[in-house]
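for the writeup, i need someone to sanity check this before i put it in the appendix. the sequnce is what the collaborator sent (i think, or maybe the updated version? ugh). structure was predicted straight from it, no edits. if anything looks off just tell me and ill rerun, i have time this weekend
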Amino acid sequence: MITIQRIENPDEKTKITLEIMNALPDWFSPPEDIVKKSQIHRAYPFIAAFDGEKAVGFVALKVHNAYTADMYNLGILQEYHRKGIGHRLVAACEEYCREHQHKFLTVKTLDESADYAPYDATRAFYKKEGFYPLEVFTTFWNEENPCLFLIKVIDP
């Protein structure tokens, strides 16, 4: 049975981040970036999905201002894709936004112009979840990895 939990303990946030991001090399790399993000996540609101005691997914939220929270990183173990876990994590983010009166939930992902197959399903997932593309930033990460910036309006 999959459960969704908010995680407060910084060490647990780091552990979950490292386990899941290192298991998803098609989406997260290089290793030093994963370690850096595992430290950044310690200070962010963090929600995880568990199959029993095993962490199988997470989302770290970066709060930009009183109006906007960003899904800074979201990862789900590949064997758990297409089981509704991503939807439940996004719903938990929406609930967090409502509790804190944020009006917008944003996310950044690789734009389709990069032509990298693993992200085709990622973009389709965000579209299905009600996110709309706002802009592509060609140098946000680097020119080989154009950043697609998406937004979702949070209904009160």
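The mean pLDDT is 97. The chain has one domain: 2-153.
thx in advance!!
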